[in-house]
Design goal:
The protein has helices spanning 3-34, 41-59, 62-75, 83-100, 103-126, 129-147, 156-164, 170-193, 209-223, 259-277, 294-308, 312-325, 335-341, 356-375, 383-395, 421-440, 444-449, 454-463, 473-481, 488-502, 507-510; strands at residues 230-234, 240-244, 247-252. With 511 residues, it is mainly alpha-helical. The chain has a 3-stranded mixed β-sheet with strand order 1-3-2, with helices on both faces.
Protein backbone atom coordinates (compact mmCIF):
# COMPACT_ATOMS: atom_id res chain seq x y z
CA UNK A 1 0.00 0.00 0.00
CA UNK A 2 1.51 3.32 -1.03
CA UNK A 3 1.11 6.61 0.83
CA UNK A 4 -1.91 7.79 -1.18
CA UNK A 5 -3.70 4.49 -0.82
CA UNK A 6 -3.09 4.49 2.94
CA UNK A 7 -4.38 8.05 3.18
CA UNK A 8 -7.50 7.06 1.25
CA UNK A 9 -8.13 4.20 3.65
CA UNK A 10 -7.68 6.55 6.64
CA UNK A 11 -9.98 9.10 5.01
CA UNK A 12 -12.66 6.44 4.57
CA UNK A 13 -12.47 5.52 8.26
CA UNK A 14 -12.50 9.17 9.31
CA UNK A 15 -15.59 9.85 7.17
CA UNK A 16 -17.34 6.68 8.35
CA UNK A 17 -17.21 8.00 11.90
CA UNK A 18 -18.60 11.38 10.82
CA UNK A 19 -21.36 9.54 8.97
CA UNK A 20 -22.16 7.54 12.12
CA UNK A 21 -22.52 10.78 14.08
CA UNK A 22 -24.72 12.16 11.34
CA UNK A 23 -27.04 9.12 11.48
CA UNK A 24 -27.19 9.35 15.27
CA UNK A 25 -28.22 12.98 14.90
CA UNK A 26 -31.00 11.90 12.52
CA UNK A 27 -32.16 9.29 15.02
CA UNK A 28 -32.32 11.86 17.82
CA UNK A 29 -34.26 14.23 15.57
CA UNK A 30 -36.65 11.44 14.53
CA UNK A 31 -37.21 10.54 18.17
CA UNK A 32 -37.82 14.20 19.04
CA UNK A 33 -40.56 14.47 16.43
CA UNK A 34 -42.27 11.15 17.08
CA UNK A 35 -42.11 9.53 20.52
CA UNK A 36 -40.07 11.78 22.83
CA UNK A 37 -42.08 12.95 25.85
CA UNK A 38 -42.61 16.74 25.77
CA UNK A 39 -40.31 17.45 28.71
CA UNK A 40 -37.38 15.86 26.88
CA UNK A 41 -37.15 18.88 24.59
CA UNK A 42 -34.65 21.00 26.53
CA UNK A 43 -32.13 18.18 26.96
CA UNK A 44 -32.58 17.08 23.37
CA UNK A 45 -31.77 20.54 22.03
CA UNK A 46 -28.42 20.40 23.89
CA UNK A 47 -27.65 16.89 22.62
CA UNK A 48 -28.41 17.87 19.03
CA UNK A 49 -26.30 21.03 19.31
CA UNK A 50 -23.37 18.99 20.65
CA UNK A 51 -23.60 16.50 17.81
CA UNK A 52 -23.85 19.25 15.20
CA UNK A 53 -20.72 20.83 16.65
CA UNK A 54 -18.81 17.53 16.71
CA UNK A 55 -19.74 16.77 13.10
CA UNK A 56 -18.76 20.25 11.96
CA UNK A 57 -15.45 20.16 13.84
CA UNK A 58 -14.50 16.78 12.44
CA UNK A 59 -15.49 17.60 8.88
CA UNK A 60 -13.64 20.93 8.84
CA UNK A 61 -10.61 19.64 10.75
CA UNK A 62 -7.00 19.91 9.50
CA UNK A 63 -7.05 16.11 9.44
CA UNK A 64 -9.79 16.05 6.76
CA UNK A 65 -7.84 18.55 4.64
CA UNK A 66 -4.57 16.64 5.00
CA UNK A 67 -6.14 13.26 4.19
CA UNK A 68 -7.91 14.72 1.14
CA UNK A 69 -4.63 16.13 -0.17
CA UNK A 70 -2.67 12.94 0.48
CA UNK A 71 -5.36 10.64 -0.93
CA UNK A 72 -5.96 12.69 -4.08
CA UNK A 73 -3.34 10.87 -6.24
CA UNK A 74 -5.03 7.54 -5.40
CA UNK A 75 -8.26 8.61 -7.11
CA UNK A 76 -6.52 10.13 -10.13
CA UNK A 77 -7.19 8.14 -13.24
CA UNK A 78 -10.24 6.48 -11.67
CA UNK A 79 -13.60 6.98 -13.37
CA UNK A 80 -15.73 10.02 -12.39
CA UNK A 81 -18.42 7.74 -10.97
CA UNK A 82 -16.04 5.38 -9.15
CA UNK A 83 -16.36 5.19 -5.37
CA UNK A 84 -12.82 6.51 -4.89
CA UNK A 85 -13.04 9.54 -7.17
CA UNK A 86 -16.54 10.37 -5.93
CA UNK A 87 -15.66 10.10 -2.25
CA UNK A 88 -12.82 12.55 -2.70
CA UNK A 89 -14.76 14.92 -4.98
CA UNK A 90 -17.89 15.07 -2.79
CA UNK A 91 -15.95 15.32 0.47
CA UNK A 92 -13.72 18.06 -0.94
CA UNK A 93 -16.85 20.02 -1.83
CA UNK A 94 -18.47 19.52 1.61
CA UNK A 95 -15.19 20.37 3.34
CA UNK A 96 -14.58 23.56 1.39
CA UNK A 97 -18.18 24.75 1.73
CA UNK A 98 -18.14 24.14 5.48
CA UNK A 99 -14.73 25.84 5.93
CA UNK A 100 -15.76 29.02 4.16
CA UNK A 101 -18.45 29.94 6.67
CA UNK A 102 -16.96 31.38 9.88
CA UNK A 103 -18.17 29.67 13.07
CA UNK A 104 -19.40 33.03 14.31
CA UNK A 105 -21.73 33.44 11.31
CA UNK A 106 -22.93 29.82 11.52
CA UNK A 107 -23.75 30.34 15.21
CA UNK A 108 -25.55 33.60 14.46
CA UNK A 109 -27.64 31.92 11.76
CA UNK A 110 -28.62 29.08 14.10
CA UNK A 111 -29.47 31.51 16.90
CA UNK A 112 -31.60 33.78 14.71
CA UNK A 113 -33.55 30.82 13.31
CA UNK A 114 -34.24 29.54 16.82
CA UNK A 115 -35.48 33.02 17.84
CA UNK A 116 -37.46 33.67 14.67
CA UNK A 117 -39.34 30.36 14.67
CA UNK A 118 -41.67 31.01 17.65
CA UNK A 119 -42.17 34.61 16.46
CA UNK A 120 -43.22 33.32 13.06
CA UNK A 121 -45.68 30.87 14.69
CA UNK A 122 -47.28 33.79 16.57
CA UNK A 123 -47.20 36.16 13.59
CA UNK A 124 -48.87 33.55 11.39
CA UNK A 125 -51.45 32.78 14.06
CA UNK A 126 -52.30 36.46 14.46
CA UNK A 127 -51.89 37.16 10.72
CA UNK A 128 -49.55 39.99 11.77
CA UNK A 129 -46.79 40.51 9.20
CA UNK A 130 -45.28 43.48 11.06
CA UNK A 131 -44.38 41.15 13.92
CA UNK A 132 -42.38 38.93 11.56
CA UNK A 133 -40.84 41.73 9.49
CA UNK A 134 -37.73 42.45 11.65
CA UNK A 135 -36.83 38.75 11.64
CA UNK A 136 -37.20 38.50 7.89
CA UNK A 137 -34.96 41.54 7.50
CA UNK A 138 -32.30 39.97 9.71
CA UNK A 139 -32.52 36.62 7.92
CA UNK A 140 -31.96 38.35 4.58
CA UNK A 141 -28.97 40.21 6.01
CA UNK A 142 -27.42 36.97 7.28
CA UNK A 143 -28.08 35.24 3.95
CA UNK A 144 -26.22 38.09 2.20
CA UNK A 145 -23.27 37.64 4.56
CA UNK A 146 -23.40 33.89 3.93
CA UNK A 147 -23.34 34.43 0.16
CA UNK A 148 -20.34 36.75 0.57
CA UNK A 149 -18.35 33.81 2.03
CA UNK A 150 -18.22 32.22 -1.43
CA UNK A 151 -16.72 33.08 -4.81
CA UNK A 152 -18.97 35.55 -6.65
CA UNK A 153 -21.43 33.60 -8.82
CA UNK A 154 -23.39 34.75 -11.87
CA UNK A 155 -26.30 35.35 -9.50
CA UNK A 156 -25.96 35.63 -5.70
CA UNK A 157 -28.93 33.22 -5.47
CA UNK A 158 -26.74 30.53 -7.11
CA UNK A 159 -24.88 30.14 -3.81
CA UNK A 160 -28.10 29.34 -1.95
CA UNK A 161 -29.43 26.96 -4.62
CA UNK A 162 -26.13 25.10 -4.60
CA UNK A 163 -26.67 24.11 -0.95
CA UNK A 164 -29.72 22.09 -1.92
CA UNK A 165 -28.90 21.12 -5.48
CA UNK A 166 -25.17 21.02 -6.22
CA UNK A 167 -24.28 22.81 -9.43
CA UNK A 168 -27.81 24.00 -10.24
CA UNK A 169 -27.92 27.65 -11.37
CA UNK A 170 -30.55 30.38 -11.02
CA UNK A 171 -30.52 30.98 -14.78
CA UNK A 172 -31.39 27.33 -15.54
CA UNK A 173 -34.18 27.25 -12.97
CA UNK A 174 -35.55 30.64 -14.06
CA UNK A 175 -35.66 29.40 -17.62
CA UNK A 176 -37.74 26.25 -16.96
CA UNK A 177 -39.93 28.03 -14.40
CA UNK A 178 -40.79 30.74 -16.94
CA UNK A 179 -41.94 28.07 -19.40
CA UNK A 180 -43.86 26.33 -16.64
CA UNK A 181 -45.65 29.48 -15.51
CA UNK A 182 -46.53 30.48 -19.06
CA UNK A 183 -47.93 27.02 -19.77
CA UNK A 184 -49.82 26.74 -16.49
CA UNK A 185 -51.50 30.13 -16.20
CA UNK A 186 -54.06 29.75 -19.02
CA UNK A 187 -54.71 26.14 -17.99
CA UNK A 188 -55.36 27.18 -14.38
CA UNK A 189 -57.68 29.99 -15.51
CA UNK A 190 -59.63 27.51 -17.65
CA UNK A 191 -59.91 24.92 -14.86
CA UNK A 192 -60.92 27.61 -12.34
CA UNK A 193 -64.14 28.17 -14.29
CA UNK A 194 -65.14 24.50 -14.10
CA UNK A 195 -63.53 23.27 -10.86
CA UNK A 196 -66.95 22.24 -9.54
CA UNK A 197 -67.21 19.56 -12.21
CA UNK A 198 -65.14 17.43 -9.83
CA UNK A 199 -66.53 16.73 -6.38
CA UNK A 200 -64.10 15.82 -3.61
CA UNK A 201 -66.70 15.81 -0.84
CA UNK A 202 -66.46 12.04 -0.50
CA UNK A 203 -62.94 12.41 0.94
CA UNK A 204 -64.40 14.26 3.93
CA UNK A 205 -66.33 12.35 6.57
CA UNK A 206 -65.51 9.78 9.21
CA UNK A 207 -62.36 7.77 8.55
CA UNK A 208 -61.07 6.02 11.70
CA UNK A 209 -57.32 6.54 12.12
CA UNK A 210 -56.54 2.84 12.67
CA UNK A 211 -58.17 1.91 9.38
CA UNK A 212 -56.40 4.76 7.58
CA UNK A 213 -53.08 3.51 8.88
CA UNK A 214 -53.89 -0.06 7.88
CA UNK A 215 -54.83 0.99 4.33
CA UNK A 216 -51.81 3.29 3.90
CA UNK A 217 -49.50 0.51 5.11
CA UNK A 218 -51.04 -1.96 2.65
CA UNK A 219 -50.33 0.54 -0.15
CA UNK A 220 -46.72 1.25 0.73
CA UNK A 221 -46.04 -2.45 1.27
CA UNK A 222 -46.83 -2.84 -2.43
CA UNK A 223 -44.40 0.02 -3.14
CA UNK A 224 -41.53 -1.62 -1.24
CA UNK A 225 -41.99 -0.96 2.50
CA UNK A 226 -41.24 -3.92 4.74
CA UNK A 227 -41.30 -4.19 8.52
CA UNK A 228 -37.74 -5.64 8.48
CA UNK A 229 -36.18 -2.37 7.43
CA UNK A 230 -38.82 0.34 7.85
CA UNK A 231 -41.10 2.00 10.40
CA UNK A 232 -44.17 4.23 10.02
CA UNK A 233 -44.99 6.53 12.94
CA UNK A 234 -47.30 9.48 13.51
CA UNK A 235 -45.93 13.03 13.72
CA UNK A 236 -47.05 16.64 13.35
CA UNK A 237 -45.22 17.49 10.10
CA UNK A 238 -44.56 14.34 8.04
CA UNK A 239 -40.98 13.57 6.99
CA UNK A 240 -38.80 10.60 6.08
CA UNK A 241 -35.44 9.93 7.59
CA UNK A 242 -32.78 7.26 7.05
CA UNK A 243 -30.92 6.02 10.11
CA UNK A 244 -29.28 3.53 7.76
CA UNK A 245 -29.85 2.05 4.32
CA UNK A 246 -31.80 -0.70 6.06
CA UNK A 247 -33.39 1.50 8.73
CA UNK A 248 -35.91 3.82 7.10
CA UNK A 249 -38.23 5.90 9.29
CA UNK A 250 -41.36 7.27 7.64
CA UNK A 251 -43.66 9.58 9.54
CA UNK A 252 -47.15 10.70 8.64
CA UNK A 253 -50.25 12.39 10.01
CA UNK A 254 -53.80 11.09 9.66
CA UNK A 255 -56.83 13.35 9.94
CA UNK A 256 -59.97 11.50 11.00
CA UNK A 257 -62.24 13.74 8.96
CA UNK A 258 -60.17 13.99 5.75
CA UNK A 259 -58.86 10.75 4.28
CA UNK A 260 -56.59 11.79 1.44
CA UNK A 261 -54.20 13.95 3.45
CA UNK A 262 -52.63 11.11 5.44
CA UNK A 263 -52.72 8.61 2.59
CA UNK A 264 -50.92 10.86 0.12
CA UNK A 265 -48.46 12.09 2.75
CA UNK A 266 -47.59 8.46 3.48
CA UNK A 267 -47.05 7.66 -0.21
CA UNK A 268 -44.97 10.84 -0.54
CA UNK A 269 -42.68 9.96 2.37
CA UNK A 270 -42.45 6.37 1.11
CA UNK A 271 -40.97 7.76 -2.12
CA UNK A 272 -38.26 9.50 -0.09
CA UNK A 273 -37.71 6.29 1.87
CA UNK A 274 -37.36 4.15 -1.26
CA UNK A 275 -34.59 6.48 -2.47
CA UNK A 276 -32.55 6.11 0.73
CA UNK A 277 -33.26 2.37 0.91
CA UNK A 278 -32.18 1.87 -2.70
CA UNK A 279 -28.67 3.28 -2.24
CA UNK A 280 -25.87 0.84 -3.06
CA UNK A 281 -24.76 -0.94 0.14
CA UNK A 282 -21.16 -0.39 -0.94
CA UNK A 283 -21.63 3.33 -0.16
CA UNK A 284 -22.77 2.67 3.40
CA UNK A 285 -21.03 4.63 6.17
CA UNK A 286 -19.76 7.20 3.68
CA UNK A 287 -20.97 10.69 2.81
CA UNK A 288 -22.08 9.24 -0.55
CA UNK A 289 -24.86 7.21 1.12
CA UNK A 290 -27.54 9.88 0.71
CA UNK A 291 -29.85 11.11 -2.02
CA UNK A 292 -28.09 13.18 -4.71
CA UNK A 293 -30.04 16.43 -4.22
CA UNK A 294 -33.27 17.74 -2.75
CA UNK A 295 -34.84 18.14 -6.19
CA UNK A 296 -33.98 14.56 -7.10
CA UNK A 297 -35.32 13.42 -3.73
CA UNK A 298 -38.56 15.29 -4.30
CA UNK A 299 -38.88 13.73 -7.76
CA UNK A 300 -39.03 10.35 -6.03
CA UNK A 301 -41.68 11.35 -3.49
CA UNK A 302 -43.81 13.00 -6.19
CA UNK A 303 -43.55 9.97 -8.45
CA UNK A 304 -45.18 7.74 -5.82
CA UNK A 305 -47.58 10.32 -4.44
CA UNK A 306 -48.82 11.81 -7.71
CA UNK A 307 -47.84 9.90 -10.81
CA UNK A 308 -48.66 6.55 -9.19
CA UNK A 309 -51.04 7.41 -6.33
CA UNK A 310 -53.30 9.71 -8.36
CA UNK A 311 -53.44 7.45 -11.42
CA UNK A 312 -56.38 5.42 -12.72
CA UNK A 313 -54.55 2.06 -12.62
CA UNK A 314 -53.59 2.66 -8.98
CA UNK A 315 -57.26 3.10 -8.06
CA UNK A 316 -58.24 0.21 -10.32
CA UNK A 317 -56.22 -1.99 -8.01
CA UNK A 318 -56.81 -0.34 -4.63
CA UNK A 319 -60.42 0.83 -4.83
CA UNK A 320 -61.99 -2.48 -3.68
CA UNK A 321 -59.89 -2.60 -0.51
CA UNK A 322 -60.39 1.14 0.05
CA UNK A 323 -64.16 0.60 -0.12
CA UNK A 324 -63.92 -2.41 2.21
CA UNK A 325 -61.78 -0.45 4.68
CA UNK A 326 -64.29 2.43 4.87
CA UNK A 327 -67.63 0.77 4.08
CA UNK A 328 -69.80 3.55 5.52
CA UNK A 329 -67.99 6.50 3.96
CA UNK A 330 -67.76 4.68 0.61
CA UNK A 331 -71.42 3.66 0.47
CA UNK A 332 -72.62 4.24 -3.11
CA UNK A 333 -69.21 5.56 -4.26
CA UNK A 334 -67.42 4.02 -7.25
CA UNK A 335 -63.80 3.82 -8.40
CA UNK A 336 -64.20 6.66 -10.90
CA UNK A 337 -65.57 9.01 -8.24
CA UNK A 338 -62.55 8.38 -5.97
CA UNK A 339 -60.13 8.81 -8.87
CA UNK A 340 -61.72 12.16 -9.72
CA UNK A 341 -61.92 13.31 -6.10
CA UNK A 342 -58.21 12.76 -5.37
CA UNK A 343 -57.39 14.72 -8.51
CA UNK A 344 -59.64 17.74 -8.00
CA UNK A 345 -57.95 20.92 -9.24
CA UNK A 346 -58.83 24.36 -7.97
CA UNK A 347 -56.75 27.43 -7.15
CA UNK A 348 -56.29 27.67 -3.40
CA UNK A 349 -54.36 29.81 -0.94
CA UNK A 350 -52.21 27.27 0.88
CA UNK A 351 -49.24 25.71 -0.91
CA UNK A 352 -49.16 22.44 1.03
CA UNK A 353 -52.83 21.80 0.24
CA UNK A 354 -52.57 22.74 -3.44
CA UNK A 355 -53.34 20.25 -6.22
CA UNK A 356 -50.82 19.03 -8.79
CA UNK A 357 -51.73 21.70 -11.34
CA UNK A 358 -51.71 24.86 -9.23
CA UNK A 359 -48.94 23.78 -6.81
CA UNK A 360 -46.14 24.81 -9.13
CA UNK A 361 -47.38 28.38 -9.45
CA UNK A 362 -47.05 28.74 -5.66
CA UNK A 363 -43.39 27.75 -6.00
CA UNK A 364 -42.54 29.96 -8.97
CA UNK A 365 -43.93 32.89 -6.99
CA UNK A 366 -41.68 32.14 -3.99
CA UNK A 367 -38.61 31.57 -6.20
CA UNK A 368 -39.02 34.96 -7.88
CA UNK A 369 -39.77 36.80 -4.63
CA UNK A 370 -36.69 35.34 -2.93
CA UNK A 371 -34.45 36.67 -5.68
CA UNK A 372 -36.16 40.07 -5.63
CA UNK A 373 -35.75 40.27 -1.84
CA UNK A 374 -32.07 39.33 -1.96
CA UNK A 375 -31.40 41.82 -4.72
CA UNK A 376 -33.31 44.53 -2.86
CA UNK A 377 -35.80 44.93 -5.73
CA UNK A 378 -38.61 44.19 -3.30
CA UNK A 379 -38.32 45.58 0.25
CA UNK A 380 -39.36 43.14 2.97
CA UNK A 381 -42.06 45.59 4.09
CA UNK A 382 -43.62 45.51 0.60
CA UNK A 383 -43.83 41.74 0.57
CA UNK A 384 -47.52 41.20 1.50
CA UNK A 385 -48.65 43.62 -1.19
CA UNK A 386 -46.46 42.05 -3.86
CA UNK A 387 -47.50 38.55 -2.75
CA UNK A 388 -51.22 39.31 -2.94
CA UNK A 389 -50.96 40.97 -6.34
CA UNK A 390 -49.13 37.98 -7.70
CA UNK A 391 -51.68 35.51 -6.27
CA UNK A 392 -54.39 37.49 -8.05
CA UNK A 393 -52.49 37.43 -11.29
CA UNK A 394 -51.45 33.76 -11.23
CA UNK A 395 -54.33 32.03 -9.47
CA UNK A 396 -57.16 34.54 -9.57
CA UNK A 397 -57.56 34.53 -5.78
CA UNK A 398 -56.35 36.75 -2.97
CA UNK A 399 -55.55 35.86 0.65
CA UNK A 400 -57.99 37.43 3.13
CA UNK A 401 -55.05 37.94 5.52
CA UNK A 402 -51.26 37.44 5.65
CA UNK A 403 -51.58 34.29 7.77
CA UNK A 404 -53.03 32.60 4.70
CA UNK A 405 -50.67 34.50 2.44
CA UNK A 406 -47.07 35.48 2.83
CA UNK A 407 -46.76 34.07 6.39
CA UNK A 408 -47.96 30.53 5.60
CA UNK A 409 -44.59 28.74 5.26
CA UNK A 410 -41.89 28.27 7.88
CA UNK A 411 -38.94 28.38 5.45
CA UNK A 412 -38.01 32.09 5.56
CA UNK A 413 -38.34 32.16 9.35
CA UNK A 414 -35.59 29.57 9.69
CA UNK A 415 -33.37 31.01 6.97
CA UNK A 416 -34.21 28.47 4.27
CA UNK A 417 -33.98 30.67 1.20
CA UNK A 418 -33.30 28.80 -2.05
CA UNK A 419 -35.11 25.70 -0.84
CA UNK A 420 -38.58 26.26 -2.36
CA UNK A 421 -37.52 25.71 -6.00
CA UNK A 422 -36.58 22.10 -5.18
CA UNK A 423 -40.28 21.27 -4.73
CA UNK A 424 -41.32 22.30 -8.24
CA UNK A 425 -38.09 20.94 -9.71
CA UNK A 426 -39.05 17.64 -8.12
CA UNK A 427 -42.38 17.67 -9.97
CA UNK A 428 -40.68 18.64 -13.18
CA UNK A 429 -37.98 15.96 -12.91
CA UNK A 430 -40.52 13.30 -11.88
CA UNK A 431 -42.38 13.92 -15.16
CA UNK A 432 -39.14 13.85 -17.18
CA UNK A 433 -38.11 10.56 -15.61
CA UNK A 434 -41.54 9.06 -15.99
CA UNK A 435 -41.67 9.61 -19.75
CA UNK A 436 -38.40 7.69 -19.94
CA UNK A 437 -39.63 4.93 -17.61
CA UNK A 438 -42.80 4.52 -19.69
CA UNK A 439 -40.75 4.19 -22.86
CA UNK A 440 -38.55 1.57 -21.20
CA UNK A 441 -41.43 -0.31 -19.55
CA UNK A 442 -44.43 -0.30 -21.89
CA UNK A 443 -46.76 -2.34 -19.66
CA UNK A 444 -46.14 -0.27 -16.55
CA UNK A 445 -49.74 0.84 -16.05
CA UNK A 446 -51.09 -2.68 -16.55
CA UNK A 447 -48.67 -3.73 -13.81
CA UNK A 448 -50.01 -1.06 -11.43
CA UNK A 449 -53.60 -2.09 -12.13
CA UNK A 450 -52.53 -5.58 -11.02
CA UNK A 451 -50.98 -4.15 -7.83
CA UNK A 452 -47.41 -4.67 -9.07
CA UNK A 453 -45.06 -1.75 -8.51
CA UNK A 454 -41.74 -3.60 -8.41
CA UNK A 455 -40.91 -2.84 -12.04
CA UNK A 456 -41.13 0.89 -11.45
CA UNK A 457 -39.20 0.69 -8.17
CA UNK A 458 -36.39 -1.31 -9.81
CA UNK A 459 -36.20 1.17 -12.66
CA UNK A 460 -35.73 4.05 -10.21
CA UNK A 461 -33.35 2.05 -8.08
CA UNK A 462 -31.06 1.12 -10.94
CA UNK A 463 -31.16 4.53 -12.66
CA UNK A 464 -31.11 6.80 -9.61
CA UNK A 465 -31.15 5.43 -6.07
CA UNK A 466 -28.09 3.23 -6.16
CA UNK A 467 -25.80 6.13 -7.11
CA UNK A 468 -26.38 8.05 -3.86
CA UNK A 469 -24.44 11.32 -4.07
CA UNK A 470 -22.07 10.04 -6.75
CA UNK A 471 -24.11 11.71 -9.49
CA UNK A 472 -25.69 15.18 -9.35
CA UNK A 473 -29.13 16.10 -10.70
CA UNK A 474 -27.47 17.21 -13.94
CA UNK A 475 -25.41 14.01 -14.26
CA UNK A 476 -28.50 11.87 -13.69
CA UNK A 477 -30.70 13.76 -16.15
CA UNK A 478 -27.96 13.69 -18.75
CA UNK A 479 -27.62 9.92 -18.41
CA UNK A 480 -31.32 9.08 -18.14
CA UNK A 481 -33.13 11.52 -20.43
CA UNK A 482 -30.14 12.72 -22.43
CA UNK A 483 -30.52 16.41 -21.57
CA UNK A 484 -31.14 18.95 -18.86
CA UNK A 485 -34.19 20.25 -17.03
CA UNK A 486 -37.32 20.59 -19.13
CA UNK A 487 -40.80 21.81 -18.24
CA UNK A 488 -42.48 20.15 -21.24
CA UNK A 489 -42.98 16.64 -19.82
CA UNK A 490 -44.71 18.05 -16.71
CA UNK A 491 -46.89 20.34 -18.86
CA UNK A 492 -47.82 17.36 -21.08
CA UNK A 493 -48.66 15.28 -18.02
CA UNK A 494 -50.81 18.04 -16.48
CA UNK A 495 -52.63 18.80 -19.76
CA UNK A 496 -53.53 15.12 -20.01
CA UNK A 497 -54.80 15.13 -16.45
CA UNK A 498 -56.86 18.26 -17.05
CA UNK A 499 -58.40 16.79 -20.23
CA UNK A 500 -59.21 13.58 -18.44
CA UNK A 501 -60.98 15.36 -15.59
CA UNK A 502 -62.48 18.46 -17.14
CA UNK A 503 -62.54 17.80 -20.88
CA UNK A 504 -60.30 19.11 -23.62
CA UNK A 505 -59.18 22.70 -22.90
CA UNK A 506 -59.34 25.10 -25.87
CA UNK A 507 -56.15 25.44 -27.91
CA UNK A 508 -55.49 28.87 -26.35
CA UNK A 509 -55.35 27.33 -22.88
CA UNK A 510 -53.36 24.30 -24.00
CA UNK A 511 -50.89 26.22 -26.17
ZN1 LIG B 1 -40.88 15.64 0.09
Amino acid sequence: MDRAERAFSDLKTHLAEIEDLDRIESLLAWDQQTIMPPKGGAGRAEQLATLTKLIHERLTSEQTGRLLDEAAPFAEGQAYDSFEASLIRVTRRDYEKARRVPTELATEMARLSAQAYPEWVEAKHQADFSRFLPFLEQQLELRRRYIACFEPAESPYDVLLDDFDPGMTTAEVADVFATLREGLKPLVAWVRERADAVDDGLLHGQFPIDQQRQFALAVIERFGYSAEAWRLDPTEHPFASAIGIDDIRLTTRFDESWVNQGLFATMHECGHGLYEHGIDQALDRSPLAEGGSLAMHESQSRTWENIVGRSRPFWRHFFPSFRDTFPEAMEGVDEEAVYRAVNKMQPSLIRVEADELTYNLHIVLRFELEQALLAGDVKPAELPEVWNARMRDDLGIEPPDDGQGVLQDVHWAIGLIGYFPTYALGNLIAAQLHERAQADLPDLEAQWAAGEFGQLRHWHQSHIHRHGRILTTKDLLERIVGGGLSAEPLLRYLRNKVSDLYGEPPATAAA
